[in-house]
Amino acid sequence: MKDVLEEFASKMAYQVGGLEGINKAIECNNVATCEYSSGLQVSGVFTEVITDEKNSPIYLCATGKSALAFGNKELPGHGINYHKEGFGSPIGKWRRTSTPPELLTDNDLRELGIVQGKKTKLEFVSGIVVEGKIDEIVRRDRRLVLITFSNCRTKYGDRILFDPDWGAYDMAVGERISSVFNGAADKDAYNQVALVPKERTIKVPSDAKRKKLENLYAQVRKIRESKTGYERLGEIWETQQAEHPGDWLLSMEIFEMLDTIDQQPDLKAKMEKFLNQKKATTKDLSTLISWGFRLVEYHKRPEYQATLQASPK
């Protein structure tokens, strides 16, 4: 079974896209994956995001071992051995077309001068300019996901984002970052079993004690899925506090549920106090619990609710 912390970190980030998701990946300083709206997944340790005047992300940077994947499967030739120095790429729409770039057809690309073997100058709405010879155009599930350039220069104003002397330039394609999540997209290829923070913030209890704790999680999950039995949450939390005082994830799970159903404000306040006290113990806990609180707020937003409604049941 995955470490509780790793499972939590993955859950906290999933489906939180855009600037908020990228910033959380940068804050965590661990391997994460930013998924473009094309489906291209960039995995690495993210260190910078450039934003435009509207505070929208227009360029992201990962440092050190990075990899590209689609559908959680690494793209051939785009693993950590190839992208060992890092990865950087624009985000957003292109000029001269209103169509999201990932949806452009081969005919659309030809009209824009995007032809394999030819030199081109590609301008983004954000002002980023990519200029070089196109060596390869990669599609997955009929979507444009990646364009590889040689002799390429990428600029944003006076800032050089990529220089021809640095080798081939692999440009991710996508109108936006649709989600950001913990860990590499293809963990096996990345040689990464799971995220392990510098300080382990949850000690794994003995088998017998672990089973009792897992039973509490199972009870909470059953209440969440059945949408009944909310009156038992207080009893479950008191058991966790008495028998598993080092655990904090269950409190966050119950806190999120109470916030969603808008019930038992006194119990919710106790949990919030407990979680804030836990935040003060280690840097890792502070980051993860803060992330959890922000996700609770994110789940209230119309755009997240719209995502849930659009998801297949």
What is the total domain count? 2
Number of helices: 10
SSE run: HHEEEEEHEEEEEEHHHHHHH
Class inferred from helices and paired strands: alpha+beta
**Weakly predicted, low-confidence segments:** 1-5, 192-205
Number of strands: 11
Question: What gap, in angstroms, lies between the N and C termini?
Answer: 26 Å
Q: Can you give the mean pLDDT?
A: 86
Helical fraction equals 25-40%
Please render the helix and strand layout as text.
Elements: H1 4-13, H2 18-28, E1 32-36, E2 40-51, E3 57-70, E4 73-74, E5 86-90, H3 106-111, E6 119-123, E7 128-140, E8 143-156, E9 159-162, E10 169-172, E11 177-182, H4 187-190, H5 207-226, H6 233-243, H7 249-261, H8 265-279, H9 283-298, H10 302-310
Antiparallel strand pairs: 1-2, 1-11, 2-3, 3-4, 3-5, 6-7, 7-8, 8-9, 8-10
Overall description:
By secondary structure, this protein is α+β, with helices and mostly antiparallel strands. The chain folds into two domains: 13-190, no CATH class; 207-310. 37% of the residues lie in helices and 27% in strands. The protein is built from ten helices and eleven strands. The protein has helices at 4-13, 18-28, 106-111, 187-190, 207-226, 233-243, 249-261, 265-279, 283-298, 302-310; strands at 32-36, 40-51, 57-70, 73-74, 86-90, 119-123, 128-140, 143-156, 159-162, 169-172, 177-182. The strands form two sheets. Strands 1, 2, 3, 4, 5 and 11 form a six-stranded antiparallel beta sheet that branches. Strands 6, 7, 8, 9 and 10 form a five-stranded antiparallel beta sheet that branches. Helix 5 runs parallel beside helix 7. The longest helix is centred in the C-terminal third of the chain and has 20 residues, at 207-226. Mean pLDDT is 86; it is low at 1-5 and 192-205.
